[in-house]
Amino acid sequence: MRLPTLVRTKPEAPGVHAEPFWSFRPQSDREAGDAIVSNFALHWFPAKISKASMAWSYSFWLGTISAALFFLLILSGLPLLFLYVPSVERAYQSVKDIEFVVTFGSWIRAVHRISAHLMVIAVALHLIRVFLTGAYKNGAGRGQRRQINWVIGVVMFLVTLFLSFTGYLLPWDQLAFWAVTVGTNIASSIPVIGPDVRELMIGGRAIEQATLIRFYVLHIIVLPGLLGGLFAYHMWRVRKDGGLARADAESVLESARPVAVVPTKTYTLLGVARGTAPAVTAKSIEAPETTVNAVPDLVRRAAIATLGTIAVVSIMSVFIASPLEEPANALVTPNPAKAPWYFLWLQEIVTDTTIRIGSFTLNGAFVGGVILPGLLVGLMTIWPWLDRSSSLAAGVWLPRSRRTQNIVFLLIIVFVLALTFVGMVLRGPYWNIYWPWEAWPEIPGRI
Amino acid sequence: MSDTKQPPDRRDFLLKLGTGAGICAITVQAAASMRSLVPNVSYDSPTTVKLGSPAEFPEGLKFLPDERLFVFRDGNTFHAVSAVCTHLGCTVHAEPLPNPQTVDEDGATVKLTHRFLCPCHGSRYRGDGANVSGPAPKPLAWFRLSLAADDGQLVVDLADAVEHDFRLTVG
Amino acid sequence: MEKRTNSPYPRIDRLIMAGIGIVLVIGTVLFIWSDRAHDWRYYQMEFRQMVAEKFGDDKAVKLPSGVQQIWVADLSRADRCVTCHQATTYKGFESAEQPYRTHPPEPLKQHPIEEFGCTSCHGGQGWAIDTAAAHGEVAHWEEPLLSRSLGESYTLAGNKNALMQMNCNTCHRFDRQTPGAGAINLAKSLVNEKGCRACHVINGFGGSIGPDLTAVGEKPPEQYEMSRLSGQRSAFAWHVAHFKDPRALSEGTVMPNFNFSSEQAQSLAMLMLSWKRNDVPAKYVAGAPRTDPRSAEELQAEAAMKNGPGGWFVQTGCFVCHSISSLGVKSPAQIGPDLSTAVEDVQSRFGVTVDQFLANPTGTMSVVLTRQIVLTPEQKQIAIQKLRDAFAAYQKQRGAAQTTVSGQ
After folding, report:
1. Is residue C250 part of a domain?
2. What angle do CA B137, B142, B144 make, to 5 degrees?
3. What pTM did the predictor assign?
4. Closest listed residue to residue A342, CA positions, set A190, A157, A216
5. Looking at this predicted complex, what is its ipTM?
6. How many helical (H) and strand (E) elements, i.e. helices and strands, does chain A have?
7. Running along chain A, 447 residues long, what does each successive block of 10 average in pLDDT?
8. Where are the domains of chain A?
9. Is residue C208 located within the same domain as residue C256?
10. Which residues of B lie inside 8 Å of C (Cβ-Cβ)?
11. In Å, how far is A323's CA from the nearest CA of chain C?
């Protein structure tokens, strides 16, 4: 498509882009760059992107998939906002109505629930990928600070978990009520401030209307807003750090002598920002065949990742129904009462670490619910500063220089997964082990 | 060359297919979200109320206090007048007239066997609901009557006001 | 010519994009289909055909379509049963098979659907619009449809349809006997005969040897000790077994074995499960007094006033403000003067006769006689006559009193 030639009636101010529309099939690099600049949605894309960063097999585009799932959650959450009533007398009934009499209601609810669970998984996989490729490390550029992005990412992961937890309570059925009971009881085992933290979370002593409205407001405004803000900063930091770590790894060439900084190549935004921007010392960036135009290639791949996620979730939602158990009843505890699956490893540790020696009892909730996850998350957060491997390992899958840390990390992940599996599949009434071939005792009904 | 247009080929077709299908699907999903906000069931009080079988209504006037309605019967013809005073909403009383009259309105004759008086502020209405004195600003409303399809009861639709030529003929 | 970077991606990426587009379309079709594939559409179509065959097309066209709901705000129930059971109030399908069968009309006269819904009597899950879910035959719904087939599965001795009576008793709890609730009536008479209150508190009084049974129907099934229960595990089955042989079921109990028959034990079990703390509004509870109680003397005095010589003044409402003591009418408010002497009083106070006063009333009476109590000309004649009668009676009574006084 040719750009229309404008009859220039007055001189344009520098920096103004006169063309009203952009092209998704640019015929030149200049058009491609123009498309980025004149488009609000794409303004945070770079004009050119390294081919190495685009590879499916490097990042699996997990970050994009996580963002697509978040986008789906907001989209499916909007009609649910109109349909759900956050009052203890009416919440359950409103969810039943969504399931039965709202057109597409059960599908919208299933999209919301499946996206939520998949988002926890996608964000976790993204975190694992970033760790295993050492992408939290700074690479070839000067002035990179990828460790900040890592910390932001860990915070986003915790916000994702908390978003899922607050949403879990909203149907106000037995599953929701008791899962939140278990979760908040674990929080209350923090020493000194535990009971106060629990009271602040619950809005009182018992899980009641105050809890529901607190969790509701957190779930629909506070946490999504926080996540949105963190997401924007996360993206911006990626640009400021010179793109994905893989781009750094690709750009490094063996060189016997020091190479001067390329004066015309920076990763600053459109080349107009000044300051401590990363400056590239490698020559390969000069070679045109290592980069492609973001429009259309990056846009197309991002669209594939996003639309593919939407397609998969749409179909899964037709076939996987959302559960809704009996209405919440504070007098009847289901047996077993389980936390949501992403906290099951904690519940498993809590039950396993309650130690009684004579009259001395070590409270498992404290060890398993506070100390252990606190240690693990804290260690994970500060790891970029403890990591001693060279910057050449940034953006490389399972490099030798980071072998030990990767193995330990994977072992911890496997440990968490194993505990989750035990909690999900093997634990039955009274938290006894029931192998898959052993039937659970029948729960009596009323009539 | 940048400005030669290539003839449409399979790649272009696939691209258009993908884009078009994707846009269609997303649009339909968005429309689905919008459709979910159009209620299928109503939690409002029903405005159509069953009043009983026609045999339970005597010749002349029957007052139904729960619906605040006067049901008139003349042979096999029925019509219904609201008992809600148009001034401030009190329920009016009906009083039989010693000499029934007949008037023509809206192209039909109405037999006036009663008049209506409001005990609250003294509004008076003629037997067809026309306001004749007192503070009432408008005549009493007439509502649509019908027969229920399932059990043949008289049904009034309190949301459907009709003109004074409305009659329901039964049988 | 401007620089243009060639990219190797478009070929493969566009293919993937097309594939995703197709998957998206399939997904869209699937979810639209899943929303439309519900039982009720078929049942409504069938019923429409049945009505068309039996009553003609014009009636069939009037049938409502779509999800139908009966919302009973007082009981917080939204029952959608009539979506499939469209024949519920439709005369003419009394012998059809469900869901096309007309509901027996007698229970509906006392318990109209608009005020009770369906599930408050029949059980089941009113919110649902699919058959199994609506009949409560799904996990996590604890009120199944109390149907004949459920009764058969429990091999109820006696009426197989009796399980529904548990729900009758939710409102009819304080009746001694409720017509139509044979099993519950049997159970209630047994409770009286056998003296259950000797050991159990029921409705506020009784003994404390056994547990309080006032809300025993609310006890969650998880809290029953079922280790010695054979067969079906439910609260109902536990109660039946418990009534038949308490000591076999509950270790260490002192409850005697009353040798109940199966029918008696099952009726008693139904009664137990029906005893719940009620959230129903008072207007639904049979036997709950809705008026202030009045003594027999008050009722007698009221009847005498209405049927006596002054009854006309009661009928018209004059007695609200005026007593007419000579005719035995006592006003509750006594705002105006006693009308026994109206013939004289009106003359002396207003200077006109009673006839003239009624024709042109003044003061408060002018407001009352134009708005609240509007008398036709005939009624005014009757009023005048009655006032004269009252005055005559007054004079006679006064004369009799004086004679009595002077005669001493």
Report:
1. yes
2. 150
3. 0.84
4. A157
5. 0.80
6. 17, 4
7. 57 66 80 81 84 91 97 96 96 96 95 98 97 90 89 97 96 94 85 89 92 96 98 93 85 57 54 51 56 86 93 95 93 88 89 76 74 92 92 89 94 96 92 91 86
8. 49-278+287-333
9. yes
10. 1-2, 11, 14-15, 17-22, 24-26, 28-29, 32, 40-43, 45-46, 95, 98, 117-119, 121-122, 148-152
11. 9
